[in-house]
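== Folding the chain ==

***
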Amino acid sequence: MVNYKDLGLVNTKEMFAKAIKGGYAIPAFNFNNMEQMQAIIKAAVETKSPVILQVSKGARQYANATLLRYMAQGAVEYAKELGCENPQIVLHLDHGDNVMEGKTRWEMVEQLREDIRNFKKEKGVDRVVVLWAASTEVYVPIDMKYHGTLADLEAAMKADDKEHIAPSMCYAYAALCEDAPFIMGAPNTTVDIPAM
């Protein structure tokens, strides 16, 4: 077993503590090839930003663990070559395994609302923020018939309309129903629909 420190990586606990204290966000990017990795690291160095590298479930299925290890280590070394003395890079390999299987869209909403309430109770907090950080989902164009009003959106969810209701819409709706701010971390139309 290889320790992240042996690769020159840092952990999110330290990274998030600095971000909270400094009042800034940390970008997270999926990568599937060397070119993407180079672009991510170059941008992080140029902007003096910490960065989270993510490997999706699909990428992990075809990528060799040894190659991923050396790509991460290479990212750190590349950042140093570009002039960053102490790169702040995290590698997430657990991205993409937590999937709600076999649920209708409305059942998903109800489960998410219950999960939010349980999380608040178990953690003893009054407020939570829901962040959508899943891989980009299939593009769902805005359609006023399904997204124009709250009643339209709810009806489509209850009808289990998977063509017009993306999973992220269920998360956003559930969060807002539970008075939890929702942050969209992927390029989806969810927060752009009038019903939200």
Remarks:
- The two ends are 45 Å apart (CA to CA).
- Residues 105-123 form the longest helix (19 residues).
